[in-house]
């Protein structure tokens, strides 16, 4: 199962770079049907990490097999994300989008592996798309 890693510093440009990275990898692997949903979900998770997580940034890990992809965004903050109740027009829609596009195939894992982060005390937030993937 191929793995691809991207370091994601807490900068305004990082979500766009992460989207471009996911698009490039999935296109190269012939998984074009997953690109739109995967890039949107990736953008939401990376944005959440940049906005809410404490630390030096995040690491994106993309794994792919057959017709499926799993993206995990690891950061140094152990606070798990939560779906917000109700609708806020300004923020808080990211996990709702991820949940809808993945049909609930997302979650968190503790602790985060080192992967170039300053601490192994963080978390990973992941999603899966496509056929043949299974939730962890």
From TrEMBL:
Span of domain Histidine kinase/HSP90-like ATPase: 16-102
InterPro entries: Anti-sigma-factor_SerPK (IPR050267), HATPase_C_sf (IPR036890), HATPase_dom (IPR003594)
Pfam families named in the record: HATPase_c_2
Keyword line: ATP-binding, Kinase, Nucleotide-binding, Serine/threonine-protein kinase, Transferase
GO molecular-function term, one example from the UniProt record: protein serine/threonine kinase activity
Gene3D superfamilies assigned: Histidine kinase-like ATPase, C-terminal domain
Protein name: ATP-binding protein
Source species of the chain: Streptomyces acidicola
